[in-house]
Specification:
Elements (H helix, E strand, L loop, with lengths): L11 H10 L6 H14 L3 H15 L6 H32 L16
């Protein structure tokens, strides 16, 4: 990470070095996929290596493979979608409870008062 501007994508050597720190070897294809994931998620090689190790341990991967990295990407994207949906639901509930949501109708209970 030394010599790299903050926020810039890592180079392939950095990614390979970070994974090798944890004893993982990358094929050329896997290293290129790692670069794509780093850019996509705005993370560096070390962060991706740690994310991979956690994911691999949970999902039973012994080696860094292209298929495994694609699986990691799908899981992360699904997790992000679920988180965004939960945040949107929480915001809508907050607005409704605070009377800020004009699109909702009054409760049917109020019709009986």
């Amino acid at each position: 990470m030394a010599g790299r501007e903050e926020g810039s994508a890592p180079d392939i050597k950095e990614v390979i070095d970070e994974f090798s720190t944890f004893g993982a070897t990358l094929s050329h294809e896997a290293a290129n996929q790692c670069l794509v994931l780093c850019k996509q998620y705005g993370i560096d090689g070390e962060q991706l290596a740690v994310l991979w190790l956690t994911f691999a341990n949970t999902h039973g991967y012994d080696a860094v493979t292209l298929e495994g990295l694609e699986h990691l990407d799908r899981v992360e994207q699904n997790s992000s979608r679920k988180k965004a949906a939960a945040e949107a639901a929480n915001a809508a509930t907050f607005n409704r409870l605070n009377g800020k949501d004009s699109s909702t109708k009054k409760s049917s209970i109020s019709n009986y008062k």
